[in-house]
């Protein structure tokens, strides 16, 4: 049994340091922002999942950056799980993201989009955010319908509706000849005490950003986006953090999953293939269980393997 990637270790070639987020807060402390540059991160995920279509890469990029934007304001040791179900080219996107800038995720492409009400590429459906904290039994769950099918707009609605925080979100992925040229985004949030003038000015600067993707492509530094949005406000940079594609799948988790498989099914695997293969959806790593391993699992249920 091959087990060359212990949990929590970066895969060679997957970890990247140039993708990052920068977080800031206005000097008065009533508006906060985070800007993200994730070009290499999204490309490495698209390569891992062998996503070739422009729409697949764009959706993966939007979902991963959206989850990272949510995670950027979560407390240490929290985990964000963003789950989007849509009727467009993507039937589902699932992303895990952490406040330390680590993310993993995948999208499931659909051959033909289903005609819906919403104009945006995600179509009709819903997005749900699950926030879990280590050692805490009750996770936080917020679910909203997709009301436009554009993820940035629907996330804005999520923050207002589910977390009661007025927010502005931008997400952009630009693709050239099958490669991601730029992936970036931002989130700006009004904290209690923000004045309407302040917010109006921010909103105007956000509207002036012609294209987030173009800005990111021109200058990979997320600071550029923040400087534009906060241009007439003094702001303090509170964090700059490298983003990383990392999966925490492990033999431990695979064994726990196999422990839920019924004896009859394990017997069938043993008889048909003398082995079982479990593939991680998030990173593609294959876990092979040989005949001996399957027999052990069957015996563990207290029944002879014959
Ligand atoms: Zn994995």
User: N-to-C terminal Cα separation, in Å?
Assistant: 23 Å
- What is the CATH architecture assignment of the largest domain? 3-Layer(bab) Sandwich
How confident is the prediction overall: mean pLDDT?
Answer: 89
Q: Give the CA-based shape.
A: elongated
**Looking across the biggest beta sheet, what order are the strands in?**
7-6-3-4-5-11
CATH fold assignment of the largest domain: Hsp33 domain
Q: How many structural domains in the coordinates? A: 2
What is the number of beta strands? 13
The H/E string reads EEHHEEEEEHEEHHHEEHHEEH
Describe the structure in your own words.
The protein has 306 residues and is an alpha+beta fold. The chain has 9 helices and 13 strands. β6 (125-133) and β7 form a beta hairpin. α1 (39-48) packs across α2. The longest helix has 19 residues, at 54-72. Mean pLDDT is 89; it is low at 1-17. Residues 247, 249, 280, 282-283, 285 line the site of zinc ion.
């Amino acid at each position: 049994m091959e087990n060359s990637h212990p949990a929590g270790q970066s895969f060679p070639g997957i970890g990247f340091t140039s993708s990052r987020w920068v977080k800031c807060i206005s000097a008065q402390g009533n508006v906060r922002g985070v800007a993200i540059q994730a070009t290499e991160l999204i490309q490495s995920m698209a390569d891992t999942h062998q996503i070739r279509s422009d729409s697949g890469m764009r959706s993966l990029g939007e979902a991963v950056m959206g989850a990272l934007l949510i995670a950027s304001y979560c407390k240490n040791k929290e985990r964000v799980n963003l789950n989007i179900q849509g009727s467009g080219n993507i039937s589902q996107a699932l992303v895990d993201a952490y406040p330390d800038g680590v993310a993993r995720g995948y999208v499931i492409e659909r051959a033909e989009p289903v005609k819906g009400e919403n104009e945006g590429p995600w179509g009709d459906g819903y997005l749900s955010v699950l926030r879990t904290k280590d050692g805490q039994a009750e996770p936080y769950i917020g679910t909203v319908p997709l009301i436009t099918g554009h993820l940035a707009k629907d996330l804005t609605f999520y923050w207002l509706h589910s977390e009661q925080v007025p927010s502005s979100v931008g997400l952009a992925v630009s693709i050239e000849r099958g490669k991601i040229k730029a992936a970036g985004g931002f989130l700006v949030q009004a904290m209690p005490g923000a004045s309407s003038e302040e917010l109006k000015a921010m909103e105007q600067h956000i509207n002036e950003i012609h294209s987030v993707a173009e800005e990111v492509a021109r200058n990979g530094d997320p600071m550029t986006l923040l400087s534009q949005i906060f241009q007439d406000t003094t702001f303090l940079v509170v964090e700059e953090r490298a983003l990383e594609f990392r999966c925490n799948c492990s033999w431990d988790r695979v064994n726990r999953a196999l422990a839920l498989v019924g004896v009859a099914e394990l017997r069938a695997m043993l008889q048909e293939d003398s082995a079982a293969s479990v593939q991680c959806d998030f990173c593609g790593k294959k876990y092979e269980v040989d005949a001996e391993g399957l027999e052990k699992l069957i015996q563990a249920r207290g029944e002879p393997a014959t």
